[in-house]
Design goal:
It holds the Pfam family DUF4982. By secondary structure, the protein is mainly β. It has 7 helices and 58 strands.
Length: about 1000
């Protein structure tokens, strides 16, 4: 029986080869060599490169510097790469293309000594047609000259590139992304690689989506070319397979194409019983588009995609007909790891990106430049929405530098328009002109008119064209296009620092000045870093969808994982992450889990105790619990110490709790006193042993030279419980077909590549990478003074290659994350208050400008004449109503306090002082029925808190309209006012 099966498989393989259905995309990653420095004859095939450094891609030539050096010290050079290969006989050789997912920064490519093409934007993928440069029956040589200079200049224009910036775009040089080789016959579907090739590939999209009925109309468009000698008539056949690889639909259309022609072929059909892609539900279909001639498949393309319905309106984002408040992270596009940079194994991208979803983030905003294909596809699988930029730094530009941005946006849209996780295209990291926004929108409309994706830019608060906006870290509200904060909360803190009571006893904020300024916000301990995540998110939560006509659509926290980019704290890398560089969570990660577990409002069961429970006897400290419940009780060894004082909606504080070894328990309750959840911290015993765990891809571990294993080491007590205050130095050793890449810890050189490094808070991690073509068993051992050692082992699986070309199995078969479920039956949006429309306005001065304070435009305001006597404005509602709250956005909201009085129909209902905020201050009033609301400045405003929000160059971020009110003591400036009646 087994022989029959084997014979059948061989026969099937032969048939596939004849019919041209065999896979025709192979990895071009193996067998490269590189040389640092320019070499005059490096492009020539006969150059002796045996002393060059062998490398398997993807790998930056300066990867060792990731986290070892600060970003501005990353090495730059001209570096040559060379690869020799032969063509496999079983594939069509009529049209052969190379696909580079990206190089850093500029690259010139030669095949067999002849110049083939150049690519220079340092970000996006590009293709090369090498059909006429290749030898079918002899050795071939590809040579690539790369240049990752920070000041790289475009050859044709001598222009630099705006996004080649030392602050945020970590410089991992050479070829740090995958390279693929495509074999095509004379009739084929093009690649989505506009750069160099000018082709747009396949476009899959849905129309007439009906979520309730689970149906849609599926459209497939594919650009095809005929390079043969005869016109061709055929059939464009579409097969649709679900996530279980079950065929769910087949449909087709006829086509004919002339000699030397290219055209777009289309087909469409209804699709029923659709499983919709959603947040935390990475349900993907495989749409196979085939060109069939005389009954034979001559070309096919598999497109992994998902279907979802979107809308961007009323200041909110709708996903599958439900309002979703944006909650997530502004992550550096490099998304790097120590001593590896961005060039990680595919499963590790899934692991990192899924952690964002596990913190209950729904959106990642990649920063400044487009992400690489691996991260985009990973977000599809894990169910994480993406805001995808093209290329930018911090401002609008003109001329060739603007054209460079439009070209990268074009290339990114074409390359990623089938990825369901891409929900936003970002046209700039700062506001751009309306004319430029119109250009970007036209590019979207040309290449992705049906993808359900909004295009906008940071800022764009008053744009009539942008489909979303939002400031960097302040809060905006809108009744029109959604406003999303793009990088709030910049505070930094090492995972190593628990609090002031735990070794190494890091005092909150202790650290050097940053450029002569106080840097305490960038040297936090874990307690305070976690609390700051709550304090900042609370301000967005207050103005969430459901709180009126004008709302905030959320924001993204900068950043998710500690990053080898610009920093303001003591270390030489940025530690703003909710996880560290090895993706070990900090307490802020769990705080987000509590606050973000829901489409808008949080699941009330969310609960987390900040910190640990292993202190010296006699220690007293404030215990904080993050909870989405209404009340929280704390118990020490079973004895209640009472209920916590609530602040910022989610924090419950228990002051001066005396440490007692044993058990610390938190219980949360709803408003009726029903127990919702409980969490426990237990005291660990004395450190006793090391414990090792390892992770690799669920699809296997392969000898492709890029696959990786992540090893975690813990210090545990005799019961196997982690010792949260342990800081032991651990010595590693290993044998087997893998290379050591190590981890990171505070200390000399950040312990990059070291085989000995300490645990921090009782745990650390290291990476090992497979060697190309080297399979077998690997063993890792760990030991530390005074502790029982540990050992683990695993096996690396072999791969098959043909002339150095292979199927990258580590990319194939990675599972999708569907943990959150389809998400189509979430509760309806909770409406908590109703906006009261304003009919007219009068004021002590400049009354004609009064409407600017409620025009839904946060770049305009009403302001008096500077006289305290005239510092009042009165609003008349459309009709009398119960008035409970007023939201005010006042100029210099981040730094200035205003003593105010509020009158309703001449009755004083508020007499107090505003506090500084990230945007809106809420005045809570005793419910008063009336129609006229007067806001009056009672005394001079004053600077309450210095605005410390500044860019790296020292420029302070605006906190209001573009006017200096610093010395205007009698000035009252209202950017926006919203008046509310609360609902029961």
């Amino acid at each position: 029986m087994r022989l029959h099966i084997l014979f059948g498989c061989l026969l099937s393989t032969c048939i596939l080869l004849v019919c041209g259905q065999e896979r025709k995309v192979l990895s071009f990653n193996a067998g490269w060599r590189y040389h640092i420095g320019d070499v005059e004859q490096a492009a020539l095939p006969n150059l002796d490169d045996r002393d060059w450094t062998p490398v398997t891609l993807p790998a930056a030539w300066n990867e060792d510097e990731a986290f070892a050096k600060p970003i501005h010290e990353h090495s730059t050079a001209v570096v040559w790469y060379r690869k020799k290969f032969t063509l496999p006989k079983q594939y069509p050789l009529d049209n052969i293309f190379l696909e580079f997912e990206g190089v850093r920064f500029g690259a010139e490519i030669y095949v067999n000594g002849k110049f083939v093409g150049r690519h220079e934007n340092g970000v996006m993928a590009f293709g090369l047609d090498i059909s006429n440069y290749i030898y079918a029956d002899a050795d071939n040589t590809v040579a690539v000259r790369t240049d990752n200079s920070w000041r790289y200049r475009e050859k044709s224009s001598n222009s630099t590139y705006q996004w080649n910036d030392k602050n945020f775009n970590a410089n991992y040089g050479g070829i740090p992304k995958n390279v693929w080789i495509h074999f095509k016959g004379t009739l084929y579907q093009t690649l989505p690689l506009y750069a160099n090739l000018g082709t747009v590939g396949t476009y899959v999209y849905a129309k007439n989506i009906d979520i309730a009925k689970r149906r849609l109309d599926l459209h497939v468009e594919s650009e095809i070319k005929n390079t043969g000698k005869m016109p061709v008539k055929g059939e464009f056949v579409i097969d649709v397979r679900d996530a279980e690889n079950k065929m769910v639909k087949t449909f087709s259309s006829k086509f004919s194409i002339g000699v030397g022609s290219e055209q777009v072929v289309t087909a469409y059909s209804a699709l029923d019983q659709v499983n919709f892609w959603n947040w935390g539900y990475g349900y993907l279909y495989t749409v196979t588009s085939k060109l069939v001639v005389d009954g034979q498949v001559v070309d096919q393309v598999d497109t992994k995609t998902g279907f979802r319905k979107t809308a961007f309106k009323e200041g909110m984002v709708f996903l599958n007909d439900q309002v979703l408040m944006m909650k997530g992270y502004a992550q550096r596009t490099s998304n790097e790891w120590p001593a590896v940079g961005l060039s990680v194994a595919p499963w590790l991208s899934d692991y990192s990106n899924k952690l964002m979803v596990e913190s209950h983030a729904n959106l990642v905003r990649w920063m400044h430049v487009a992400p690489w294909r691996q991260d985009v596809e990973s977000c599809d699988r894990v169910g994480l929405l993406q805001m995808l930029p093209a290329g930018d730094a911090e401002r609008d530009v003109e001329g060739r530098r603007w054209e460079q941005r439009t070209e990268v946006m074009r290339d990114a849209i074409i390359y990623y328009r089938n990825n369901p996780s891409v929900l936003f295209y970002e046209s700039g990291n700062e506001s751009i002109s309306e004319a430029h926004m119109a250009e970007m929108k036209a590019i979207r409309d040309r290449y992705d008119p049906h993808g359900g994706r909004a295009i906008g830019s940071r800022e764009m608060l008053d744009s009539k064209i942008a489909e979303y906006g939002g400031e960097m870290l302040y809060i905006n509200k809108s009744a029109k296009h959604p406003m999303i904060a793009t990088e709030y909360m910049r505070d930094e803190g090492l995972r190593k620092y628990w609090d002031e009571y735990t070794y190494p006893f890091h005092k909150e904020g202790d650290g050097p000045l940053y450029k002569g300024n106080d840097a305490s916000d960038y040297n936090r301990n874990q307690d305070q870093h976690a609390l700051e995540t709550v304090r900042r998110w609370w301000e967005y939560w207050k103005v969430r969808p459901g709180t009126g006509t004008r709302v905030s659509s959320g924001g993204v926290n900068i950043i998710f994982s500690d990053s080898n980019t610009h920093y303001r704290g003591k270390e030489n890398y940025r530690r703003s992450g909710e996880v560290d560089a090895m993706r070990i969570p900090k307490d802020g990660f769990y705080a987000h889990q509590v606050m973000w577990d829901g489409w808008v409002d949080a699941d009330p069961k969310g609960l987390h105790i900040i910190g640990h429970w292993n202190y010296q006897e006699g220690t007293k400290k404030d215990i904080r619990v993050v909870s989405a419940g209404e009340r929280v009780e704390l118990l020490v060894n079973g004895a209640s110490v009472g209920f916590g004082k609530r602040s910022h909606q989610f924090v419950f504080t228990f002051p001066d709790i005396l440490y007692e070894a044993g058990e610390l328990k938190a219980r949360s309750y709803n408003v009726n006193g029903m127990l919702l959840n409980e969490k426990v911290l237990r005291t660990a015993g004395e450190p006793y042993a090391l414990k090792l765990h390892y992770k690799h891809g669920d699809n296997g571990l392969f000898a492709d030279g890029n696959d990786m294993v992540l090893v975690e080491v813990e210090v545990v007590d005799k019961n196997g419980q982690r010792c949260p205050t342990a800081t032991h130095m651990v010595d590693f050793s290993w044998d087997g077909p893998m290379d050591w890449r190590g981890g990171i810890a505070q200390g000399p050189g950040n312990y990059i590549l070291s085989e000995s490094l300490p645990v921090e808070a009782g745990v650390n991690r290291v990476l090992l990478r497979t060697r190309y073509g080297k399979a077998g068993k690997t063993t890792v051992r760990a030991q530390a003074n005074g502790l029982q050692p540990a050992q683990i082992e695993w096996t690396v699986r072999p791969i098959d290659s043909v002339g150095g070309l292979f199927v990258k199995l580590s990319k194939e078969g990675l599972p999708s994350n569907v943990d959150r479920g389809p998400g189509l039956d979430e509760p309806a949006l909770t409406i908590t208050r109703r906006s009261l429309p304003i009919a007219s306005v009068s004021a002590g001065a400049n009354a004609q400008q009064g409407t600017a304070s409620f025009d839904d435009n946060e770049l305009s305001d009403w302001v008096n004449d500077g006289s305290l006597q005239h510092a009042w404005i009165e609003y008349t509602l459309a009709k009398a109503a119960d008035i409970d709250e007023i939201d005010l956005k006042l100029n210099n909201f981040r730094s200035r306090a205003y003593p105010l009085q509020v009158f309703v129909d001449d009755k004083l209902v508020y007499d107090g002082e505003t506090a500084t905020t990230l945007g809106y201050y809420t005045l809570a009033l005793p419910r008063t029925r009336g129609r006229r609301i007067k806001i009056q400045l009672k005394g001079s405003s004053y600077v309450m808190d210095e605005n410390k929000h500044a860019e790296i160059g020292g420029k302070k971020l605006d906190d209001g309209v573009a006017r200096n009110d610093a010395n205007a003591k009698g000035t009252l400036s209202i950017i926006e006012i919203d008046i509310y009646s609360k609902l029961k």
